[in-house]
Specification:
By secondary structure, the protein is mostly beta strands. The chain has a domain at 1-6 and 21-64. 15% of the residues lie in helices and 39% in strands. The chain has one helix and five strands. It has one helix at 51-61, and strands at residues 9-13, 20-25, 33-39, 42-48, 64-67. A five-stranded antiparallel sheet has the order 4-3-2-1-5.
Length: 74
């Protein structure tokens, strides 16, 4: 599974349908990955220590994501 880093996406299937997601690699402090999810003014983040854990996180969430610019909500 390839998960784009630093590219926003829209969750279209699985947990949190309709939310946006973006992954950031924390090269400076932890070497892990931050997972940012948001919808409207609500937002959350999570962290995993490595890419294998990131893949597992995505599998458990059952996410299908449309990657690329996410249009603003009206």
């Amino acid at each position: 599974m390839e998960i784009p880093i630093g590219i926003p996406g829209l969750i279209i299937s699985g947990d949190e349908v309709g939310w946006t997601v973006e992954i950031k690699y924390d090269t400076q402090k932890t070497g892990g990955y931050y997972i940012f999810t948001s919808r409207d003014s609500e937002g959350y983040d999570d962290w995993v220590p490595d890419y294998k854990s990131l893949e597992k996180y995505f599998e458990e969430s059952k996410w299908l994501i449309k990657w690329g610019p996410v249009p603003p909500r009206v």
